[in-house]
Amino acid sequence: MVDLQTQYAEIKDAVDKGIADVIESAAFVKGPAVETFARHLEEYTGARHVIPVGNGTDALQIALMALGLKPGDEVITPTFTFIATAEVVALLGLTPVVVDVDWETMNMSPEAVRRAVTPKTKAIVPVHLFGQCADMESITAIAKEHNLFIVEDACQAIGAEYTFSDGRKMQAGTMGEIGCTSFFPSKNLGCYGDGGALFTNDDELAAKIRAIANHGMVVRYHHDIVGVNSRLDSIQAAVLEAKLPHLDEYIRARQAAAAYYDRAFAGNKHLAVPGRDRKSTHVFHQYTLRLQDTDRAKVQTYLAEKGVPSMIYYPVPLHLQKAYQDPRYKAGDFPVAEKLSASVLSLPMHTCLDAEQLELITRSVKEAVG
Length: 370
Description:
Radius of gyration: 21 Å
Largest sheet: 7 strands, mixed
Low-confidence stretches: none
Helix content: 25-40%
Distance between the termini: 23 Å
Structural class: alpha/beta
Number of helices: 13
Strand content: 5-15%
Order of helices and strands: HHHEHEHEHEHEEEEEHHHEEHHEH
CATH superfamily of the largest domain: Type I PLP-dependent aspartate aminotransferase-like (Major domain)
Shape: globular
Number of strands: 12
Mean pLDDT: 97
CATH class of the largest domain: Alpha Beta
C-alpha cells in the first residue's frame, strides 16, 4: 500500500544528515530542528502558527481543550472517518454528534450538519477524508450562523487547497479556528515514527495550545491550566524538514497515479472512482473506489492472489462501533456512510508507483470485478 523504502532512498542524504545533526547536537526534545520545521511549515501552509505535537490524535484533543469546551457540549463529526475524530471528543467528556456524508466525495454533508445543530452544539469537526477538503464554504457559513468553532481534521489532506467562491485560496487545516494534521509514516508528509501538528491564525489560541501541549506550563514549573505532554521530537522534525521541500512533488505523483486509475476504471459498471469537489484539490492520501454489484471480499482475495494489496477504510462507521453505541443512533440512520463502509476499497497509493505497478493493479482489479 505504501513504499517508504524507495522514497527514503531518493532523499537519503538529506534525511541522514538531518538525523545526524540532531544526534550530534543532542537537542532531542524541543530543539532547533523542531522550530525550523514549524517555521517552514508555516510558510508552506500560510498558517500564522504551526505547533508540532506528538501525533494527530493529540492534535485533535489539544484543539478541543484549547477551545474551552465543557462536558456535555456537543461536537459534530462525520460518522464515516477514522475513530480518532470521535475518540478525543469522548475522552474529554464531550458529546459526539455524528452525521452522514456525501456519496461522491465521502466527506461530511453540510445539510446533515445543519440538521444536527442544537443549542448544545459548540463545535464542528470536518474531516478532509482521503486527501480532499470538505465543503468548507457551506460548513463555515453554518458555523458563523450558530456561533460554532471549527476544528479541521486535516490529518489526511496536508497540501490540499480549497477555493472559496470569492476566489480566496486556503490550505487544508487553515480555514477553521484550529486545524490538525498527522505525520504518521504513511501520510503524504510523514515522519519515521509518530508526529502531528496544530495550525491556527489566532495568537491567543496559539499561546494556549503551546501551553496545553507542555503540561499547561508557560513559565517553567508554573502550571496555569490543565495540559498534556505532547511534542514532536527533533529527529522526527529533521525527517519532516527533509521531506517538506518535496511535498508538492509527492502530491503530483499521487495525482498522476490517481489519474491513471481513473482512466483505467472509466466506464466500468462495477467501479465508481473517487468523486471530486470542484472547490478542492485532491492530494490522494488514499485512492478509494466504491464497488458496485460485486463481492468485495472476493475482489480482495483475487487481488491478494495477484500480489496486489488493498485495504478497507473504514469497514464500520462510528455510530455502529461497539465503543460508541448510543441510543440516539441505530443501523440505517446514516445510509450513505453505511453503504460506503460496505463497498469502499482502497488501492495502493504512494509517491513511487511506476507504470508497471499501475498496470498490474488496474488489470487485476478489472479482472476481479469481471
